[in-house]
Amino acid sequence: MITKVDAFISENGESADVRQATYEDSVDRFDGLTGDMFGKAICGALIYVRASISIFFRVINQIGGTTMKRFLIAACLGMFGTMAIAEGSTVYPFDGSFDDATFSVESAIIGKGLVIDYVSHAGEMLNRTGADLGSDVELFAAADIFVFCSASLSREVMEVDPMNIAYCPYGVFVADRNGEVMIGYRNYPQGEMQEVQSLLDEIAREAIGE
User: Which of 63, 165, 195, 196 is most buried by its number of CB atoms within 10 A?
Assistant: First the structure.
């Protein structure tokens, strides 16, 4: 809990030494705050945010006063919003080969009484077209996307909002990246589409053996 913030708010007329001390104190406070709030488990995800905030503090400390406070609030809100958008998928590690993972996903989907419309071999496409696009970067050793739909669930969410058709069909992917096999799916917005996300999560968890 933050009980005092004015200690690291610059004021007009401060010397360069005082502004530098203010900056260093603000970074220390941020380090302590993020350590308490998030812990080591997600510190890696905060590297970008911490670096960006450090830059903001350096700039803001040259502004001072009320202007600094307004700029700080706007900047932090913007950065955390960007971070939330970046978290657009749920991914689970799979203990096994890529082929085993695809078989598990296929079995989990069929086990729900669903029909797989098609399998997109996205990894093959990316590897095949990389050279033509002037890139030698291997994004995935292999990657497949299993595409399907649920008639009952789709009707349920589209009766709430017909524009939920934009999210149909649904997909669960399997990918092998740098020797690590993973299973995942795209996250959906809050509301009725969480019913679909729950189905995808059940399929993914069943595929990894949970």
Answer: 196
